[in-house]
Automatic annotation (TrEMBL):
A Pfam family that the UniProt record links to this protein: Sulfotransfer_1
Keywords in alphabetical order: Membrane, Transmembrane, Transmembrane helix
Coiled-coil residue spans: none
Organism lineage string: Eukaryota, Sar, Stramenopiles, Ochrophyta, Bacillariophyta
Domain Sulfotransferase: 196-325
Transmembrane segments: 6-26
UniProt KW Plastid keyword: no
A molecular function (GO) term: sulfotransferase activity
Protein name, UniProt field: Sulfotransferase domain-containing protein
Length: 370
């Protein structure tokens, strides 16, 4: 009759010891018990009850278009099964009740319940969750931005940037295109949210040809027969496209206040797409300036690193943004090199142009390609 209290006492003591053992030897269990994170998938991160703070910080993925942005975003997403983010709400994915992917123009259906989901409630203008059905990363969320100073069909005023305008563009995104005017709705957020940056560089020769390939696929998708008949998707089509851009949108050296010798100014205009080379140089100059001004720890990543040492590159990214590699698999397709689209004398002329325009840091980034 007197054994019951002893049994109860022994049971309680064992339970206490087991619970203590869990917290001592399985700290992830302890953290899971202590942590309660609420994510409202319709309005971003809403509440946190966590002594360690589960709110991820923003790490910009800064890249000139077609430098490896999409692959890097997919890589991190697949390795971690966590969401990444983007400045560009229109490209962010949401799902209907059946789990089907939806991509809608915010202008065409502004009252629809599916809207880009902001990462933070206090920042409704972005960044936005690219895969809101996935979990949040624990430390840093990779966030796509192309910043500014980039366009194919425009003159100098369309791409010349100051340090301030470039910084503003890095924290600017869009929410669809107005079908009446063809213009995008621009939205911006406070760049002080950003705590780190990955700066991607790619061989500018490959980069510019890839821009042409993207342009070709966009025109094909839009069934632009005249454009497709004018430019073939090969070296000849690329060179013709470039020369037409050179003629249609000549670079205003006076407006840029560039102190080039007359010989450089004359010869550089004979190089295919020389204006786009200027844009890439300006982009890297200003990207480095912005990360320095914001005191952002930054990681320089060359697109070719994926081909040269894939595993080491993954390790560098993982360490920088503090991610654990899961079971996801990602594959890199090598061989996207297009320097042969340019002649040897054109490459030589471009080298002098790049050296003249580049900051010391930008030349260190691009020197390997010349």
């Amino acid at each position: 009759m007197e054994t019951k209290p002893m049994i109860l006492l022994t049971t309680s003591l064992l339970a206490y010891i087991f619970a203590s053992f869990q917290f001592l030897y399985f700290p992830e269990i302890a953290r899971a018990i202590q942590k309660e994170v609420s994510l409202d998938t319709r309005s971003g991160i809403s509440t946190y009850q966590d002594a360690e703070s589960a709110r991820p910080e923003i790490c910009w993925l800064m890249s000139y278009p077609n430098s490896g942005t999409s692959f890097t975003m997919k890589l991190v997403g697949r390795l971690t099964n966590a969401t990444v983010a983007s400045n560009y709400g229109q490209e962010c994915i949401d799902f209907d009740k059946n789990g089907q992917e939806q991509r809608e123009n915010m202008y065409e259906n502004p009252s629809h319940e599916r809207k880009p989901i902001p990462l933070f409630n206090e920042s409704p203008n972005g960044p936005f969750l690219l895969n809101p059905e996935r979990t949040l990363p624990r430390s840093y969320i990779l966030t796509k931005t192309h910043c500014g100073g980039r366009c194919n069909e425009c003159g100098s005023k369309g791409f010349l940037e100051t340090p301030n305008s470039f910084l503003e563009a890095c924290a600017t995104g869009s929410l669809g295109t107005d079908p009446k005017t063809g213009t995008k709705k621009r939205i911006s957020y406070d760049p002080s949210f950003v705590k780190k940056a990955i700066h991607i560089a790619r061989d500018p020769f490959d980069n510019i040809v890839s821009n042409f390939h993207l342009e070709y696929h966009e025109k094909k998708k839009d069934s632009n027969r005249h454009w497709l008949q004018t430019y073939s998707n090969d070296r000849n089509g690329f060179r013709k496209w470039c020369m037409n851009l050179n003629a249609k949108y000549p670079f205003d050296f006076v407006e840029y206040n560039a102190t080039f010798s007359p010989s450089i100014m004359q010869t550089i205009q004979e190089v295919p797409c020389y204006k786009l080379f200027f844009q890439i140089i300006q982009w890297h100059n200003l990207a480095s300036h912005v990360t320095k001004e914001l005191h952002l720890p930054s990681l320089l990543l060359h697109y070719e690193d994926y081909e040269d040492d894939f595993n080491k590159t993954i390790e560098k990214i993982s360490t920088f943004i503090d991610i654990s590699q899961g079971k996801g698999v990602a594959y890199f397709t090598p061989g996207k090199r297009y320097k042969h689209y340019f002649r040897a004398n054109e490459i030589k002329k471009l080298k002098g142009f790049v050296v003249k325009l580049s900051t010391e840091k930008t030349w260190k980034i691009l020197q390997r390609y010349f």
